[in-house]
Design a protein that fits this description.
The chain is α/β, with parallel strands linked by helices. It is 48% helix and 15% strand. A five-stranded mixed β-sheet has the order 2-1-3-4-5. The chain binds cobalt (II) ion. The site of cobalt (II) ion has 7 residues, from helix 5.
Length: 216
């Protein structure tokens, strides 16, 4: 059997299992979503948001891209942030990186990767900013993993620079931002960084109260 066909078969088995446990499962699922969490993770196939967090359909709004970046010119991630924060009104935003990230590793080399160079440039900027600390983190694996952590922190800062986040913090005192890193070696999530609505934002990026009260 061709490999892709096993996915369709597995889907049928999944539907059967869900219905055997709860016969109105899909009827309920189709009514709408009220997820409390936004997950920004890496596209890496080994870090499935729902599976590593024990969550089920409807619980997490998910955005994944290479190396879990929040880039201010990326309409995709910015639209996700807007929808999750302003419309779904999530309580927590989680940026989750993972040790041994191939995107981060690639950005630390001097090789080119075609169109991905533009994307990886965002990681190179973080690498450049923290070069001393990263070089002091030991061997290649240690240096990659240090940049994985520092990049997650930088992405949280990138979210804090947006008006959508600043407005939600001002008007509704949510969401809390979390920076996590997943360990492929042990399956554990490290809870490394946290910012809540009382966290300070650098003045250069801060919108004034009047601007924050205006609709988005
Ligand atoms: Co990755």
């Amino acid at each position: 059997m061709e490999n892709y066909k096993s996915l369709l078969l597995a889907n049928k088995a999944w539907v059967k299992e869900k219905l055997s446990l709860q016969n109105d499962y899909f009827e309920n699922l189709s009514k709408g979503q009220q997820p409390q969490f936004l997950w920004v993770g890496c596209s890496d196939s080994r870090v499935p948001a729902e599976e590593v967090t024990g969550t089920t359909p409807g619980e997490i709004f998910v955005h994944r891209n290479i190396a879990n970046l929040v880039v201010h010119t990326d309409l995709n991630v910015q639209s996700v942030l807007f929808y999750a924060i302003e419309v779904l009104k999530v309580k927590d935003v989680i940026v989750c990186g993972h040790y041994g990230c191939g995107g981060v590793r690639a950005a630390m080399t001097q090789q080119h990767f075609g169109i991905m160079d533009q994307w990886l440039r965002n990681i190179k900027d973080v690498y450049h900013m923290h070069r001393g600390e990263i070089d002091a983190a030991g061997d290649e694996e240690g240096r990659v993993n240090k940049l994985v952590e520092l990049s997650v922190l930088e992405q949280l800062h990138n979210i804090m620079k947006t008006r959508v986040l600043q407005r939600a913090w001002k008007m509704e005192q949510r969401p809390t931002l979390h920076g996590w890193v997943f360990g492929l070696q042990d399956g554990l999530l490290r809870d490394l960084y946290r910012f809540d609505p009382s966290s300070s934002i650098a003045e250069e990026f801060r919108y004034d109260d009047e601007s924050l009260k205006k609709p988005l």
